[in-house]
Design goal:
48% of the residues lie in helices and 15% in strands. It is of the alpha+beta class and 474 residues long. The chain has three domains: 194 residues, Ribonuclease H-like superfamily/Ribonuclease H (Nucleotidyltransferase, domain 5, 2-Layer Sandwich); 128 residues, PX Domain (2-Layer Sandwich); 124 residues, no CATH class. The strands form two sheets. It has a five-stranded mixed sheet with strand order 3-2-1-4-5, with helices on both faces.
Length: 474
């Protein structure tokens, strides 16, 4: 199977309220030889205020953000979806992608009425090289040079790890350069830490990972937590009834004989202690599982001896009542889901109805005037809001004057200052304050771009303020 490596450069670090500015991807064969590549940039969305820190890191200038020759966000996302679909089925890979880039990509697809689960449906699976690099540090440390950060700890940042291991990365934080750096690290892991690579490849799909935990009463689960690799011998206790991709596993340093005598309330208090006796493992997020025979001294619990570990696992697997009480204790400790009022955070709400999905398909192939007509026919309020937002961003001239004015005012109110305490998006006030603080200690080579962005942000705030002032006097 082929591999699709990708990376994004964005306006900031919030997965819901920032946007992708640059996207790059490369298609490789099974041996990680590059077959094809693609990259694209887009203009800044009208309701997004870029973080000055992100602009300094990526080197994006003000004229790039507003370049009319660049595609719109809608056009870029459609092109990305076309390319990745044409290269599928494949294993989709990034660096710290599952927790960041993929969420941004899903939300970009969602906001542009595209299917959001491209990376793990239609025969595709996904992989993240960051946790593999962390695991390689534990299981095959001699095969790599490990850079150290300012705090004296091993740094797994791509722009440090890749150069330390022979990759020329002078253009770090360019999306295509980071794609090739990720491919370089993947090749090294495959060659120098084959047990890690093979484990990741074996369970990169939800189906294969689920089958593994069903067939193995004991296995080693390796997770990345706070930049550190944590490996434990565990046994599965059950799958979240509300999410078939989430597995709960018991650390076998826990004695099930003691657990079996506890009530649900006592178990709930016990599993809240640290280190956590029960872990949450994502079966659909390329979990790093290994058979017990590969564990060795790397896994917590191995010191108990394999015979004792196996005995504890069998006790748990044969005690359905204990597993059910453990599951109830875990679920009872979780806060109830509360839906956000913001459409950006409603991505994982209910599925669209069949009629709405048919309208989505029609919308994507329609002219702009017909899209405006279709936008009023959606049952789902998310689709009504998102479709009209797309139209305003890309073809505002087809809207009536009042609808355009409403969008202008709503965007100005959103970005001018922090009025809505429920949102995490960057406002103009926030960005100006950040840029001014950064300028105090900024090195000379960063001052020019910071001053450029600060001047644009101040002018933008004045424009938004005049819009709001005018609305208040109408």
């Amino acid at each position: 199977m082929a591999f699709i490596f990708y990376d994004t450069e964005t306006t900031g670090s919030d997965r819901c309220f920032d946007q992708i500015l640059q996207f790059a991807t490369a298609l490789t064969d099974d041996d990680l030889n590059v077959i094809d590549s693609f990259e694209i940039r887009c203009r800044l969305l009208p309701h997004i205020v870029p973080s000055p820190g992100a602009m300094v890191v990526t080197g994006v200038r003000v004229d790039q953000l507003f370049d009319p020759q660049l595609p719109s966000h809608y056009e870029m996302c459609n092109r990305i979806h076309e390319v990745m679909t044409a290269w599928s089925p494949a294993t989709v890979i990034g660096y710290n992608s599952i927790s960041f880039d993929e969420e941004l990509l899903r939300r970009a697809f969602y906001s542009n009425l595209l299917p959001i689960y491209l990376t793990n449906t239609g025969g595709n699976s996904r992989l993240d090289i960051l946790p593999l690099a962390v695991a390689a540090h534990t299981f095959a440390p001699q095969g790599f040079n490990w850079p150290v950060n300012e705090k004296g700890r091993t740094s797994f940042k791509l722009d440090r790890l890749a150069p330390a291991n022979g990759f020329e990365h002078s253009n770090a934080h360019d999306a295509l350069a980071d794609v090739h750096a990720t491919i370089h690290i993947a090749r090294l892991i495959k060659e120098r830490a084959p047990a890690v690579w093979n484990s990741a490849m074996a369970y990169r799909s939800k189906a294969s990972a689920t089958q593994f935990v069903e067939l193995n009463s004991v296995f080693m689960a390796t997770r990345l937590r706070f930049g550190l690799c944590s490996s434990s011998l565990v046994t599965a206790i059950g799958i979240n009834p509300d999410n078939s991709g989430e597995l709960f596993a018991l650390d076998l340093r826990q004695d099930p004989t003691l657990l079996s005598s506890m009530t649900i309330e006592e178990l709930a208090a016990h599993i809240a202690t640290k280190p956590r006796p029960i872990s949450s493992l994502k079966l659909n997020a390329s979990p790093l599982f290994m058979p017990i025979e590969l564990a060795g001294a790397h896994a917590s619990g191995y010191e108990l001896g394999l015979e004792e570990i196996a005995r504890r696992a069998e006790l748990v697997r044969n005690d359905e009542g204990l597993r059910q009480r453990l599951m109830s204790a875990v679920m009872s400790g979780r806060a109830p889901f509360s839906e956000s009022p913001h459409v950006e955070e409603q991505i994982y709400g209910s599925f669209y109805s069949r009629s709405d999905q048919s309208l989505v398909d029609e919308f994507r192939g329609a002219s702009w005037p017909l899209r405006l007509e279709l936008s009023g026919q959606f049952e789902d309020p998310r689709l009504r809001g998102l479709s009209r937002r797309i139209i305003y961003f890309d073809a505002p001239h087809i809207m009536g004057a009042k609808m355009r004015a409403d969008f202008v005012h709503a965007i100005a109110a959103r970005i001018h200052a922090r009025n809505d305490k429920s949102g995490r998006w960057t406002t103009l006030d926030d960005a100006i304050e950040d840029a001014q603080e950064m300028l105090i200690d900024a090195p000379l080579d960063r001052q020019a771009i910071l001053r450029e962005h600060l001047a644009r942000l101040i002018a933008w705030r004045e424009e938004a303020g005049l819009i709001l002032q005018g609305a208040n006097t109408d």
